[in-house]
Amino acid sequence: MEAISSKHLLTNLLLIFASSFSTLCANTGIERPHQEANTVFIRTSCSSTTYPRLCYSSLVSHAELIQTNRVLLTGAALNVTLASAKSTAAVVSMMAKRQGLKPREVAAMKDCVEVLSDSVDELRRSIDGMIHLRTSNFEMTMSDLQTWVSAALTDENTCTDGFQESPTAATIGGTNTKTRVRGLVVQVAQLTSNALALINQLANQG
Ligand SMILES: *[C@@H]1O[C@H](CO)[C@@H](O)[C@H](O)[C@H]1NC(C)=O
């Protein structure tokens, strides 16, 4: 009986020791310095964009994929921008169908959806260009990417211009529709501007 319980005690002590050891390893393990290098890389690359904090927060969840690779970083920035442009176009398109909007406002929203879908096309083309970057002429592809992403940014700005604050802004259910649309599209434009800055960085540094 006593022999069994001391054996148990030893087993328990070993288990406790083993689990603290593995916790220690998890906290100071091999993976961590890499992860830190990856997030530092994102922060550093984002520091030269127009909206560095948005750049970092939108990309940090992809740190493991990006590692410290500028092509992957730029690709991820374009992917995040495309996803945001697509979902914003869908939201604005739904908002345009709401009751109580003035015809002028419906028209502005529809115009906005149209230019946003152009910007989605331009971003898609850019992502395709990024995917084939290794097997294509680097300078030419980077120049195309600069053209397409600049065009996407211009389209998004066209939309926000149509939703400038004005005293006659429609208020639905306590939410100012113009302000909401504008806020969403401004976010897409900021992501696009950041992606363009990362493309320019990549083009200059090769
Ligand atoms: C971006 O999206 C494309 C298409 O879905 C994908 O093939 C690519 O791996 C993504 N790139 C990055 C860096 O996430």
| The first-level CATH class name | Mainly Alpha
C-alpha Rg, in Å? 25 Å
Q: How many structural units, i.e. domains? A: 1
Describe the strand arrangement of the main beta sheet, using strand numbers.
1-2
Number of strands: 2
CATH superfamily (homologous) name: Invertase/pectin methylesterase inhibitor family protein
Bound small molecules, which ones? 2-acetamido-2-deoxy-beta-D-glucopyranose
SS content category: mainly alpha
The proportion of residues in beta strands is under 5%
What count of helical segments does DSSP give? 8
Contiguous uncertain segments of 5+ residues? 21-27
- The N- and C-terminal alpha carbons lie at a distance of 73 Å
Mean pLDDT: 85
Give the helices and strands as they follow along the chain.
HHHHHHHEEH
Amount of helix: over 70%
* Largest sheet, strands/sense/barrel: 2 strands, antiparallel
The CATH architecture can be named as Up-down Bundle
- What global shape is seen? globular
What is the name of the CATH topology? Butyryl-CoA Dehydrogenase, subunit A, domain 3
